[in-house]
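// run 5 | inverse folding | seed 20
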């Protein structure tokens, strides 16, 4: 299988084979004593622990049997992307997220894309994430996914050059942006000299852009909207991020019990009495938002919230029902969405996708399980997934039975050789596979900070970068021209 490394033109690295945009960094790295870099790694870990940048791992237990929180491992070697590559990626991201928001508005209103036969009706209307309660609801600016995390991978083409692909669209409650921001702060603290040698585009203004996006999403005629971050609470795996973003934006972090609905308006309990809330940046899944509409036993949401939302008196970011657009089966239709709604050809490619629901493609999947990556349509976080080349015969046969029992619950894709980047591991510096999650904000306009969260699979040969599966993170540098 062909390989593509972000830093080196050849693997293993050979003299003179450093890519142009890494040459300054490579010269700097060659001058660093190993013990200095080791101390910097240890210093980063101490600081991250002190700040409380942890990730709760569900189901994992410490030796005493209690639940565990872990640091997401941070790697000192940045992922560097030249300006011209980022510019094209940014155009592709704006195009894609624009089309996805058009799709969401359409499926909850006129359903033109279904009537045109572009997407089968059952894939939308019978989708577990489709919310009939949202039919006919008009949301400000027709924006449903205000904050999107689009997962991008790079893989070698036939000539061995790196080609970017969108692997997944995360449109519900995408997480990870706090690690992007903290990774940059850490690199600037540990290696300030590197930022005088490189023109690295800044990311620190993300909270300002996020607040601007939230305020732009407020109900009409709300000149000074009150925004809050709604968290499930301190036991959620991403609670650090919820608190971090609220603090960075200067808005309140609230739980469901801090809010109530009266006369179809949402109010926040404060020491000075109730205060009206206009925009809720929710980090709570649809099913838990309103016990009067969804799960009646949920204590995480707010009774009456959906009615206030339908009345147009509060904005919810991201909107209820966005999950129907980031389903792994719907993903295969995003290029057609771009053509249907925008009349354009996709700038960023999809990974070729085989649908278990189609008999011919199902046969291909079953005949080639050992070579494919198979995913549950509603799976997330690296769970519910088979990486054929890395699986045992028994694991493949278990998946075969699961696919046969519910063919429309699975898709399959070729096993891409994800690009690698030099990474500190126990044995020293070695290539490890990576992906990239840029965060795309849709308010008055579609915008983003240059870069995103680079996730790295720390196990040798692993293609699974998810934090829940032991992945780490890197700072992402977009070089300015």
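// decoded
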């Amino acid at each position: 299988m062909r390989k593509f490394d972000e830093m080196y033109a050849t693997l293993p690295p050979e003299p003179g084979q450093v890519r142009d945009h890494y040459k300054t960094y490579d010269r700097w790295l060659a001058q660093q004593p190993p013990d200095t870099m080791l101390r910097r790694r240890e210093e980063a870990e101490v600081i991250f622990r002190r700040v409380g940048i942890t990730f709760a791992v569900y189901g994992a237990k410490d030796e005493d049997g209690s639940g565990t929180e872990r640091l997401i491992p941070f790697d000192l070697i940045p992922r560097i992307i030249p300006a011209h590559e980022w510019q094209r990626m940014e155009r592709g991201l704006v195009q894609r997220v624009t089309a996805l928001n058009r799709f969401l508005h359409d499926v909850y209103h006129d359903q033109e894309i279904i009537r045109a036969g572009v997407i089968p009706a059952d894939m939308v209307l019978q989708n577990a994430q489709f919310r009939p309660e949202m039919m006919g609801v008009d949301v400000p600016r027709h924006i449903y996914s205000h904050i999107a995390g689009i997962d991008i991978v790079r893989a070698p083409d036939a000539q061995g050059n790196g080609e970017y692909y969108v692997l997944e669209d995360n449109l519900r409650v995408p997480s990870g942006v706090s690690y992007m921001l903290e990774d940059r702060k850490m690199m600037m603290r540990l290696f300030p000299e590197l930022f005088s040698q490189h023109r690295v585009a800044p990311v620190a203004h993300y909270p300002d852009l996020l607040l601007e996006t939230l305020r732009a999403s407020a109900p009409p005629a709300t000149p000074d909207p009150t925004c809050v971050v709604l968290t499930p609470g301190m036991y959620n795996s991403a609670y650090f991020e919820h608190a971090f973003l609220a603090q960075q934006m200067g808005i309140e972090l609230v739980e469901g019990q801090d809010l109530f609905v009266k006369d179809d308006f949402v109010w926040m309990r404060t020491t000075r009495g109730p205060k009206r809330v206009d925009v809720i940046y929710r980090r709570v899944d649809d099913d838990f938002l309103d016990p009067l509409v969804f799960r009646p036993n949920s204590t995480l949401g707010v009774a009456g919230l959906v009615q206030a939302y339908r009345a147009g008196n509060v904005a919810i970011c991201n909107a209820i029902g966005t999950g129907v657009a980031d389903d792994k089966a719907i993903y295969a239709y995003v290029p057609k969405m771009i053509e249907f709604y925008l009349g354009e050809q996709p700038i960023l490619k999809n990974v070729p996708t085989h649908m278990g629901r189609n008999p011919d493609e199902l046969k291909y999947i079953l005949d080639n399980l050992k070579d494919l990556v198979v995913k549950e349509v509603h799976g997330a976080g690296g769970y519910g997934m088979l990486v054929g080349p890395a699986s045992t015969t028994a694991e493949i046969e278990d998946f075969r039975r699961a696919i046969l029992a519910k063919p429309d619950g699975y898709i399959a894709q070729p096993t891409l050789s994800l690009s690698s980047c030099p990474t500190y591991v126990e044995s020293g510096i070695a290539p490890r596979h990576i992906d990239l999650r840029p965060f795309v904000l849709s308010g008055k306009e579609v915008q983003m900070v240059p870069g995103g969260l680079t996730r790295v699979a720390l196990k040798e040969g692993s293609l699974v970068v998810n934090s829940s599966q032991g992945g780490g993170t890197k700072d992402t540098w977009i070089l300015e021209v």
